[in-house]
Specification:
Elements: E1 2-6, E2 9-13, H1 19-23, E3 37-39, H2 43-52, H3 58-73, E4 79-81, E5 85-89, E6 92-97, H4 104-115, E7 119-123, E8 128-132, E9 135-139, E10 154-165, E11 170-173, H5 176-184, H6 193-209, E12 211-217, H7 221-231
Parallel strand pairs: 2-3, 6-10, 10-12
Antiparallel strand pairs: 1-2, 4-8, 5-6, 5-7, 8-9, 9-10, 11-12
Helix pairs in contact: 2-3
Length: about 240
């Protein structure tokens, strides 16, 4: 058992293998014996995960199961996981969402390259968004894809950008009718009634209070300036 603070939630994690503890090293709380949430997975959980994804080790599948169970508990704290890359510039966080392989992590890395020490990738794959005191915060988590890029920090969500590949760079406000299908495919929509009700309330507030964009881009520094300028202007043509 170890304790970690993830999205400002103290999580007690029972584990069989060391993989999860290793990737959580920057989140671990020393001398802690009280948690907001306890997470434990069974051998059956790991066996089923390995059956579905036999290319992965039991250690990594245990970690995936732990994360999956954590996501089912944090809704109680107005927190949900979204698949995306999150970059923090100054105190603001910008999230980039896309299907796997489109280039969200590549674009986040370009932000780091262009803006240097003013910019940090707080998570390259599975950040958590949490609503606290009227604001949406984005948090890094230990689970951050094959690149393993994450920082134990948070920032206020400034905007969410759906990425599409294109030879030319352009950014527009997302059409309201397109936001829900583009957003919901980047998370696990709960099935249980209580969690589903909480998620729908959370998503409704997120959509009403966050600016959403569609970025068509290539792999260039200009793509960074296009997304940065587009998401920091009040109006985008």
């Amino acid at each position: 058992m170890f304790y970690a603070k993830i999205a400002d939630i103290v999580v007690g994690i029972q584990h069989r293998y060391d993989f999860t503890k290793k990737i959580s090293k920057d989140y671990i709380l020393e001398n802690c014996e009280k948690a907001d949430v306890f997470i434990e997975v069974t051998d059956d959980d790991i066996d089923e995960a390995c059956r579905i994804s036999p290319q992965y080790t039991r250690e990594s599948m245990e970690s995936a199961c732990i994360y999956s169970k954590l996501c089912k508990e944090i809704y109680k704290f107005n927190a949900f996981m979204f698949h995306g890359a999150a970059v923090k510039k100054n105190d603001d966080v910008f999230m980039f969402m896309a299907a796997s392989g489109v280039g969200k992590t590549t674009h986040a890395r370009l932000w780091k390259k262009v803006f240097g020490d003013d910019c940090h990738i707080i998570n390259g794959d599975k950040p958590i968004i949490r609503f606290i005191d009227g604001k949406y915060y984005v948090y890094g988590t230990p689970w951050s894809g094959k690149e393993g890029i994450n920082i134990n920090t948070r920032g206020v969500l400034k905007g969410i950008c759906f990425i599409e590949q294109s030879p030319r760079n352009s950014i527009t406000k997302a059409e309201p009718k397109d936001i829900i299908p583009k957003l919901f495919v980047q998370t696990i929509v709960p099935k249980e009634p209580e969690r589903l009700q909480m998620f729908m309330k959370f998503a409704d507030g997120l959509i009403k209070n966050t600016n959403f964009y569609v970025l068509k881009c290539n792999i260039s520094d200009d793509a960074v300036y296009t997304s940065w300028e587009g998401m920091t202007k009040e109006c985008v043509e």
